[in-house]
Amino acid sequence: MAKERPEKADETEQMIEREVGKEAAEGGGAGDGRDMRAVLLSGFGGLNKLRVARKVMPEPQEGELKIRVKACGLNFIDLMVRQGNIDNPPKTPLVPGFELSGIVEAIGGNVTGFEIGDRVMAFTNYNAWAEVACTPAEFVYKIPDDMSFSEAASFPMNFVTAYMMLFEVANLREGMSVLVHSAGGGVGQAVAQLCSTIPNVRVFGTASSFKHEAIKNSLTHLFDRNADYVQEVKRISPDGVDIVLDCLCGENTGKGIGLLKPLGTYILYGSSNMVTGETKSFFSFAKSWWQVEKVNPIKLYEENKVMAGFSLLNLLFKQGRAGVIKGVVDKLLALYNQKKIKPLVDSLWALEEVKEAMQRIHDRGNIGKLILDVEKAPTPLMANDSTETSEAGEEEEDHEGDTENKERMPFIQ
Ligand SMILES: NC(=O)c1ccc[n+]([C@@H]2O[C@H](COP(=O)([O-])OP(=O)(O)OC[C@H]3O[C@@H](n4cnc5c(N)ncnc54)[C@H](OP(=O)(O)O)[C@@H]3O)[C@@H](O)[C@H]2O)c1
To answer: What residue stretches are annotated with the Enoyl reductase (ER) domain (predicted)?
Structure first.
């Protein structure tokens, strides 16, 4: 995952280490207006590895914009980063987060097209979950006046991923059919909305049953996540579907390819199945990849099927395709302005509530996107509640910070 220009990422890691070293004490900073609040991941593992700390505020380098952050997107990949469940994980401590919205506060050298005060959304290669972030201008996009900061922080990762898969990789056209897992989540809802912009596209989705009432109008057919979706799809469409979007990996890969019509496209874009508890499970990792390894390219040839993979972060930060993504963001903003798409925000959380926000995804509770709202004050703790009772919870060796880990009620939009 995610390190275009390794020297840049390394520099970022060193910067974090330097900054953390400079902190006068844990929770303390310069206190002279040049420090900021940020979420810090102290090491890979469970929720107790996260805390809010004061850090030295970054300044924009050549080609970068400094953004006063208003809202940050919380994505499934952030859970995987926390666990160290990604390829080539960077060194900790680090500030997590890959997307944000806010206001341009300073402009580095050689940047054109932006002014101080612009309302923007942006991708960052980590470091988004803070009061201030710097990122290259090629990853920053101005937002419409009527787009809220929480909508803007929900937009880039989910809608660009959905758009790229549907239109750039799979070539979605009128009359086609699509299967998407986690249909009630951030990417799932973006897929459903984008499919609705093309006539007569049928969308089959899987999601936890309690979400069905809320999302039923966005999909054509909805199945419980534990149902035998292969049988359900075949019952409705014996030929299968044209596009399978798989973020579950493992045995779903074989099932998804099996469901394709001739000339259909299967896209692997996630491995949520590898998250089986609060900390990384080597067993689920090995099991998932063992199943994927069994795909036979000769069979794909004989059956006229396409198998593809998509990773937005690699495309942006490793493979230098910011220009392609800028073009896609322009198209998506046009759809937003035409009121054809609109991010679905699940809930807003203060930076200090990051553990509870992550727990909500572990518990499969979200419908749409979770947002860290930088200006939001933490909601008072609920008496006698603890996130330790969750479905996702596993025994943690390190119980540092557990006293903070009480359940809070999210602010539901
Ligand atoms: N390749 C890329 O460029 C890219 C970009 C963005 C996201 N992604 C991937 O797309 C998928 C969705 O991402 P998202 O950020 O939009 O998250 P999301 O769908 O909002 O994630 C939460 C939902 O995932 C489902 N889920 C499936 N397995 C789970 C597990 N083991 N633990 C907890 N929940 C699980 C749950 O919904 P149900 O219970 O309703 O199924 C849960 O509510 C993830 O796999 C993510 O890594 C890939």
So the answer is: 45-372
